[in-house]
Amino acid sequence: MATQRTSPRTAGVRTPPRAAGVLSRESGHEQVVFCHEPRSGLRAIIAIYSTALGPALGGTRFYPYACEEDALADVLELSKGMAYKNAIAGLDLGGGKAVIIGDPERDKSEMLLRAFGRFVQSLAGRYITACDIGTFSADMDVVARESSYVTGRSTELGGAGDSAVLTAHGVLLGMRAAGEQVWGRWGAPWQRRIGIQGVGKVGFRLARTLAEEGATVIVHDVDQRALDRARAEIPGVQIAPDLDALLTADLDVFAPCAMGGVLDERTVSRLSARVVCGAANNQLADETVAKLLDDRGILYAPDYVVNAGGVIQVADEIGGFDLVRATKRADRIYDVTREIFRRGAADRVRPDVAAARIAEARMADLAAVRTVHLPRTA
Predict the structure, then answer these.
(1) Where are the transmembrane segments (predicted)?
(2) Two domains, one topology: 3-83+93-157 and 164-362
(3) Which of 85, 97, 108, 291 is catalytic?
(4) Which residues fall in the annotated binding site for NAD(+)?
């Protein structure tokens, strides 16, 4: 029988030993759901950080976590990031995320995805899912056979398709804003040296566009197939043999586009770039890293600001997808990024602090408005 454990900010929830301190009142999460369906092999966690602005929207990551506590720690961080991302993007949506524990190439099946869809449906719209690492539009089509609360579906079925399209677009705009902040003008066209860690769904699009526009692009990925594709399809791309070689290369911009936590004390000390701007979620290993970057004179474009194009894309699907409309909304990422740098300079705080203040203020303001009772409609 399928099982579900839910924690609406209450004590007494059973958590894995190493994660026991993570899932608590201090985490700020409204609800955490552990999903298990033994016949399909489904093991998943859905985390809802906040619904102050509306239903919690965030993708489903399918990843071979070493243990459940690692998956829990990741989904808690990712769901919080989604709340801030949706708030600063101006969406009337809260923040949530899901992770499925397993190897997507080996463990993914129709039965498992449909079982996951039933858990999503059981939350009655508090959480809306989409694609993330290890999941694709075709997977969302399967999940949608069991749930009404699915975005990022195939364009053939009226969905928004692969959210990497506008994610990469938004990162490019954020990168332009950051470049102008550091160098006064970005270059014509984009004449900079850019290192990209991860050339998967988003990183590949980003690398190809930058190369086509005149940038020198250097990439690294742990997946040899991704590197082979980059070498074959991206004009003039250079391949770094490992992450250290990428970090220490002569770079203007470093773009993390793989898993989170790549920037820590060691990697920041080796980084040659003047700007960090990429698509990965939770790029900083912990809160102290933002100061390390700032101390070294490296401008950090907050990840949840510049990578918001993807959530803007799938959010547009909720009302009937229109790519032109979604792209226009994603275009605002350039202005939002510039405003964060402006406010940071005016308030004498780092960009990450300025961004968090804007997102938190919007969540607080809308939460206050929604204390007004609305009568039920038929």
Answers:
(1) none
(2) yes
(3) 97
(4) 198-203
